């Protein structure tokens, strides 16, 4: 068994920007010396999350609306009162969705459903540059 760690950077617009990172993840897995195993896709940041979704405009809009219902932006947050950066909702949304995804990969490619893409969801209230780490365990 071996471990490899790779990373890449992307820019987002913030405000629940949902970015399809499947091409970058697939590219990094294709470059790995490990052929099959498990990949953890992790974003380093407390206002950003990683999940999978069907990347089409209807469901992307539905996910944004669902987060606005579950964790509304325009309510009181103790974080905002303390720090004044206005992104209390971003931190809570990111904690709910989580910063990482575990995906199996085989023959150098992630094993995904036909309509299943790996996405980064940036909940922050401003554009950000994000570092995504892919740690691969396998052989
Ligand atoms: Zn904050």
Strand order of the largest sheet: 1-8-3-5-6
Shape estimate: elongated
Top-tier CATH class? Mainly Beta
Tell me the radius of gyration.
16 Å
The percent range for helix content is 25-40%
Number of DSSP strands? 8
Question: What does this 3D model show about the protein?
Answer:
There is one protein chain. This protein has one domain: Jelly Rolls (Sandwich), CATH 2.60.120. The protein is 29% helix and 39% strand. It is an alpha+beta fold and 139 residues long. The chain has a 5-stranded antiparallel sheet with strand order 1-8-3-5-6, with helices on one face. It has helices at residues 22-31, 57-70, 78-83, 88-97, and strands at 2-12, 17-20, 37-43, 48-53, 100-106, 109-110, 117-122, 128-138. The protein is elongated. It contains 4 helices and 8 strands. Residues 79, 83, 85, 87, 91 line the site of zinc ion.
Q: Which features characterize this protein?
A:
139 residues; five-stranded antiparallel sheet; single chain; 4 helices; binds zinc ion; 29% helix; Jelly Rolls
Q: Could you give a short description of this structure?
A:
The protein has four helices and eight strands, in the order ββαββαααββββ.
Sequence-ordered SSE layout with sheet pairings:
Blueprint: E1 2-12, E2 17-20, H1 22-31, E3 37-43, E4 48-53, H2 57-70, H3 78-83, H4 88-97, E5 100-106, E6 109-110, E7 117-122, E8 128-138
Antiparallel strand pairs: 1-8, 2-7, 3-5, 3-8, 4-7, 5-6
Bound molecules: zinc ion.
């Amino acid at each position: 068994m071996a471990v490899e760690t790779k990373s890449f950077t992307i820019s987002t617009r913030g405000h629940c920007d949902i970015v399809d990172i499947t091409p970058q993840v697939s590219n990094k897995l294709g470059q790995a010396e490990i052929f099959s195993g498990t990949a953890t896709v992790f974003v380093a940041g407390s206002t950003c999350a990683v999940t999978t979704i069907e990347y089409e405009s209807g469901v992307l809009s539905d996910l944004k609306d669902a987060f606005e219902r579950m964790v509304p932006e325009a309510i009181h947050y103790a974080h905002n009162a303390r720090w004044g950066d206005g992104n209390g909702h971003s931190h809570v949304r990111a904690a709910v969705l989580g910063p990482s995804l575990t995906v199996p990969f085989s023959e150098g490619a992630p094993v995904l459903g036909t309509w299943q893409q790996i996405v980064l969801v940036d909940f922050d209230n401003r554009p950000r540059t994000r570092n995504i780490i892919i740690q691969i365990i396998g052989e």
